[in-house]
Design brief:
Layout (H helix, E strand, L loop, with lengths): L3 H8 L4 H14 L3 E4 L5 H10 L4 E2 L5 E3 L13 E5 L11 E3 H12 L7 E8 L12 E6 L2 H10 L1 E2 L2 H4 L8 E6 L16 E5 L4 E5 L4 H4 L2 H16 L4 E3 L1 E8 L4 E8 L6 H5 L11 E7 L3 E5 L6 E4 L4 E5 L9 H5 L8 E3 L2 E3 L4 E3 L39 E5 L16 E2 L2 E5 L9 E4 L2 H9 L2 E3 L11 E3 L12 H13 L6 E5 L20 H11 L6 E3 L2 E3 L14 H7 L4 H16 L6 H16 L3
Parallel strand pairs: 1-6, 3-19, 4-5, 4-10, 7-9, 9-11, 14-24, 24-28
Antiparallel strand pairs: 2-3, 6-7, 6-8, 10-11, 12-16, 13-14, 13-15, 16-17, 17-23, 18-22, 19-22, 20-21, 25-28, 26-27, 29-30
Bound molecules: guanosine-5'-triphosphate (GTP), sulfopyruvate and manganese (II) ion.
Length: about 625
Amino acid sequence: MADPDKAMDSAGLTNPRVREYVRHWAEITGADRIEVVSAADDARLVAEALDAGELEPAGEGRYYSRSYHKDTARSEERTIVATNDPADAGQYNNWRPASEMKPLLEGKMRGALVGKTMYVIPYLMAPPGSPLDQFATGVELTDTRTVVLHMIRMARVGVEFVNDLADPDSFVRAVHVTGELESLGHGTPDDQRYFVTCADERTILHFGSSYGGNALLGKIAHGLRQAAYDGWASRSFLGEQFMLIGIEDRQTGRTYHVAGGFPSASGKTNLAMMQAPDALGDRYHVTFYGDDIAWLWVDPDSGRVLALNPEYGVFGVAKDTNEATNPNALHSVDPGTGAIFTNVAYNPATQEVWWEGKTPEPPADVTGWLDWKGHAIADREPGDDAPWAHPNSRFTTTLANVPNVAGDFDDPKGVPVDAIIFGGRTRDREPLVRAITDLAEGVYDGLTLGAEATFAAEGVDGQLRYDPMSMRPFMSYAEGEYAAHWLRIIGAATEQPIFAHVNWFQRDPDDGHFRWPGYRENLRPLLWLLQLKNGEVTGRETAVGILPTEEELDLTGVEISRADLDAILSIDVDRWRQEMGFREEHLKQFHGLPDEIWEAHRRVAAALEAADQ
Ligand code: GTP
Ligand code: SPV
Ligand code: MN
């Protein structure tokens, strides 16, 4: 067994409570070696991972990794929030008593690191010095070197973040064990995987995966689930699955900030890395603050809602990322960036990577190419058109590599939020944008956010899989309380952000094409929204919010048909009336939902009843 004190002494880790925690888990896991890591260890760890075959070279200063084939995404059904109060159980958080889950996980982790190294990763989820610092510190313990390398890219890592805590005990205890992936019974009744956040004890215990959201505990488990819980328990902030951008208007010299919740794989990274369309690029510039998580609070001095991105990097979807859709994403993983690609296609001879949509066609010469499972493309049976890359293949890169990163992305004081938007993949009914000026209606809109059910067979036709504020997989306490907390936090601002629902994904029912070109063009409805907030345009009132008129929306250079434009700028009253029934059922599941939310629902329903066809 390792000597934890020796490892911590030599790394200069002095926080007595962290030392106690490391000793405790070193004993339970039986680790042979302990290594305390800092960001400065990156080059050495990369070299070790290359040597061990855990990473492969992907061109100058870039790396490739392949997962176990059943371990390629978060597993919502194996994810649990455990606390000591049954009242914390909600519709989506999969609540269990902490007294049941802690011993179970401890049992799985006991002896799991015999013969292995336990890496100790002290981290900070926030730019240092922010008003939310007390919620941002954590120490992840992991048995997996590539998890360390991802954490160094995705969070600020080093002993300096834990040594001088005002309260030495105020850090999240985040324990991760990958285990023996082949023998975990993925998807069987005997599934051994457990991803547990013991929220009221600020302890995270994840067993059975080395995939991003399951293994980089600073990100999803701490940055979202734990932060959402802490923000509520302390009545002080919101932790949300939000992107965060700046929009600079060079003509007026003003910069606006927009935060937005979109369910997983619904366009946050793409929106945050957006390049203004050519026709607007001289005047507007979009800057990147964050693409997956934002923490929001109210500044008592200015009365504004402020937001920051607690992360230090991007863990982005590779599929369909190309020069046209998202040049900034492509250049954020250029040679020399230290980027890591996971589960894309790889050519060891040329060290190239490829994914569906990177180019219109896959490389014509398939010599040397391996699909994401490591099988040679050249050996495929004729007609085998399985994707080369896993649909959830990802790239990992630090924020500083993102070409449009905001100059002040590292500023701990946060940025004032002008607008909060929600959007999901909705093939009909939802227009391009509808603005909402009332707080309760904005929160109601977030709570009824949804995306198309992935499998038609699972859902009622036209019914969404609701994903409140895009937090369904990350919800850590009961939804009624969650809604009340939103009203409380944003309601404390003296300058309210404007709300909006956006939809880039409406389709033509006949041939299925996207009615709106999306990607870079998405700036246009956002500019309209900010003009509406400034009183520069008035829009058109409807039962479900204010829509832009065609004249108000700057469409210079957009190629869109008359039929498509009419469809995305109008309301289908019949479909909306049907939707209100689904929403009612959805909201009824939440106990303790504030009256303001029900009143908002009834106002919208009544307006729809009164609306013309
Ligand atoms: P997570 O990292 O899972 O939280 O996802 P995300 O919300 O950041 O989604 P991301 O930006 O990675 O986009 C997911 C997929 O949606 C990608 O394949 C994109 O190409 C596609 N996508 C993003 N924006 C648009 C758009 O405006 N229009 C269309 N048609 N597709 C888009
Ligand atoms: C998501 O799934 O929403 C992500 C990626 O942002 S991860 O949670 O890491 O899978
Ligand atoms: Mn996400």
